[in-house]
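Box 4.2: Ligand-aware structure prediction
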Amino acid sequence: MPLLTPSRDVQRPAAAGAAAPAIELVNVSRRFVTPEGKAMTALRDFDMVVGQGEFACVVGPTGCGKSTTLNLVTGLARPSAGEVRVMGQPVGGVDPGVGFVFQTDALFPWRSVLDNVAAGPLYRGVPRKEAYEKARDWIARVHLAKFEQHYPHQLSGGMRKRVALAQTFINEPKILLMDEPFSALDVQTRTLMQDELLALWSGTGASVVFVTHDLEEAVALADKVYVLTAGPATVKTVFNVDLPRPRVMSEIRYDQHFVEVCKVIWDALREEVQIGQQRTMDSGH
Ligand SMILES: Nc1ncnc2c1ncn2[C@@H]1O[C@H](COP(=O)(O)OP(=O)(O)OP(=O)(O)O)[C@@H](O)[C@H]1O
C-alpha cells in the first residue's frame, strides 16, 4: 500500500446500512461582511469528508479559513451555501457530542484541576460521586494525579494542556475539533502532548479535525491531511497518510518515510503559503 495517496474526496451517499461519515462539508461557501462593509469569501466550494474514527489534519496559509471550517462543524457559523452534516444530519446548533480544544485553554481559574475536569459530567447531570470518580480517572490518565488540588495558575503550560485534554475526553466526544491546540507550547512539551493526544484518542473511535500550522505535526498525527488554498479557502489536495500506528512522535520525525511524506505535502502547501505571504506584503499588514 502506498504511504501517501493524494486524492480529492468524492461525495457519495452512504450505502444502505453503512455508517454515515462523522463530518461532511459539501460544496460549502462562507461569506462575511468586513468592518468596512465589504463582502468577503472565507471558504469557497469546500468539500471535506471525515469518517468515523478518522483523524484529519488541516493545513493552509495564515488566515486562509481553517478556523472557519471548524466553526461550521460546531454550528457556531452557518454556511452561506452548501451543506454541513455531522453523523449524517445537517448541523442545527451546538452538538453536545462534539468536543473542542483550542490554543488557549478554557480552564476555570478559580477551580482546582479536579473541579475543572469534573465540571463537564456535572453539567451533563452525572451524579456527583460518579462525576468525581470519572474525573480522578481521567486526571490519572493524563499523569496529573498528584496535582488534583492545584489551581490552573500553579501549573505549567503543558500541564494545563493535559487538564484541557482530560476535560474534553471525559465527555467521550464522538467528534473532537482542535484548533492549533499545542502551538503555544515549547517544542519538547508539544511532542509529549502529541503522544498524549494519540494515546488518549486511540480506541475511543472519535473522529478528529485538527488545525495546525505545523506540517510535521499534521503528518505525524493524521490519517489524512487537507491542504487548503490561500483564501478563499478551498481544498487543494487531500493526502492519505498511511504511516503505521501506533506512532511515537520523538521517533517518527527521523523515519525516512515520514520525511518523504512531509516533503510531498510541503510541495503542495508551499505555493499557497507564498501566495498568502505575497498578499500580506502587498496589503502592508
Ligand atoms: N466573524 C467574522 N467576520 C468577518 N470576517 C471573518 C470572521 N471570521 C473570520 N473572518 C475572516 O475570514 C478569513 C479566514 O479566517 P480564519 O480565522 O478561518 O482563518 P485561519 O486560517 O484559521 O487563520 P489563522 O491561520 O490565522 O489561524 C480571514 O480573512 C478572517 O479575517
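In the box above, the bound molecule is adenosine-5'-triphosphate. The longest helix spans residues 256-283.
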